[in-house]
Amino acid sequence: MNQLSDYDFELPDDRIAQVPLADRAASRLLWLHRESGLTEHRSFREVPQILRPGDLLVVNDTRVSAVRVKGHKATGGAVEALLLHEVAHGTYEAMVKPGRRLPDGTRIELAGMAATVEGRGGIRIVRFDPSPDLKVRLAEAGETPLPPYIHERLPDAERYQTSYAREEGSAAAPTAGLHFTAEIIEDLRARGIEVARVTLHVGIDTFKPLQTENLDEHQMHGEVCEVPTATAEALSRCTGRIVAVGTTTVRTLESFATGPRKIRPGRMRSSLFIRPGFEFQIVDGMFTNFHLPRTTMLAMISALAGYDEVRRAYAAAIEERYRFLSFGDSMLIL
Would you list the domain boundaries of the chain? Predict the structure, then answer.
C-alpha cells in the first residue's frame, strides 16, 4: 500500500457537505472496530456511552486565526490577501493575489487600511500602517478561509472553530473536533473520561494534493505542535484507552512518543508521515472525518484500522450517504 493510487476511490460530489449542521452533535457516527473490522452506524450523541471510564480523550485546541481580506492597489486594481498568522504587531505572513502583480514594496489597501506587501514567492509579508483598531476592522471585513471544496459561504465563522479552540495560529480547523459540544465534553468528564489537550497549528499546505505516486518520495510539510506537561501526566496515569480527536492530534502524540504509552512534553516541528506499517506507540483509537481520496489522512487511518477495513468502511459510508469532509459526519476507529 505504498502507491498513491492505492488510496483512490470514487467520491460523488453530492457526498461533500457544503454547510455544517445547525447542531454540532447531530452528525452520524460510523464506528469501525479495530479488532473485528466490523462497522456500526451510530449517532455522535452516543459518544459518551461508547467511551469508557478510564479512557483519555485528547483534542487539538488550535484556533483558526487566518482571515481572507479583499482590497485594492493604489492604481485601483483588485487584490486579495489570506492573512495566515501575525508575526509581529500589525505584520502578517500572507498569501496574496495576484501575486505576480504585487512585487516587493507594493502599497495596497485592505479593509480600508494601508499596508505594504514585502518579499517574493508564495508566502509574503503584509505590513499594515499603524491603526488602533486593526484587528477589529480585519474581523469585520474579513472572511473565514474555508477549504477549496466548500463552495457555500459560512454565515457564522464560529462554526469553523471547535468548541474548545483557544490557541490561535491555524489556517484551517482540525475538523474532527467540530462535532464536540461543551455539553458532550462535560458529560464525558462526568463519566470518568478525562479530556486533555495538545496544540498543532494546521498550515495552508494541508489542502495541497499529494504530488508523488510513490509514497516513499512524499515529504510532509512540517507543522509546529506542542504537548503540555499536564497532558503528558494525564497520559501516564491513563488506565483505559487513549483516543485522539483528529489526524493532527494523532500526529502530535506519536511525534512526542518515547515508547509504548510514554510521551514527553514539549514543542517541536513535526513532519511525521503515518502510513501502513507504522507502529503506534500512543494512540488506541481516533475520531476523524471522512477524507478525500489520495490523501495522507487516508493513509494514516489505514495504518490504524487496516487498509482493507478502511476501504470497506468508506464504501459503506458512500452507500449509506454519509456526509464527507470538513462539515461532514464523524468516524470512530476504536
Answer: 4-64+155-333, 67-141
Distance CA 141, CA 70 (A): 8
Q: Which residue has the higher pLDDT, 325 or 209?
A: 325
Among 62, 27, 23, 19, smallest CA distance to 47 is for 27
> Hey, what CATH topology would domain 67-141 get?
Thrombin, subunit H (2.40.10)
Residue 75 has pLDDT above 90, yes or no: no
Place of cell 489537550: 197
Phi-psi sector, 175: left (phi>0), alpha (psi -120 to 50), beta? alpha
Q: pLDDT at position 262, please?
A: 95
Nearest partner of 286 among 14, 47, 69, judged by Cα: 47
Query: What is the pTM (predicted TM-score) of this model?
Result: 0.92
- Contact between 282 and 253 (Cβ < 8 Å): yes
- CA distances to 91, 163, 227 from 135, in Å: 11, 22, 29
Q: Is 217 exposed, middle or buried (0-12, 13-18, 19+ CB in 10 A)?
A: exposed
Rounded to whole angstroms, how far apart are CA atoms 71 and 272? 38
> In this structure, which CATH number among 3.60.10.10, 3.40.50.620, 3.40.1780.10, 3.30.50.10 belongs to the domain 4-64+155-333?
3.40.1780.10
pLDDT of residue 206: 67
CA distance 119 to 123: 8
Name the residue among 299, 320, 323 with its Cα closest to residue 311: 299
CA distance 220 to 273: 6
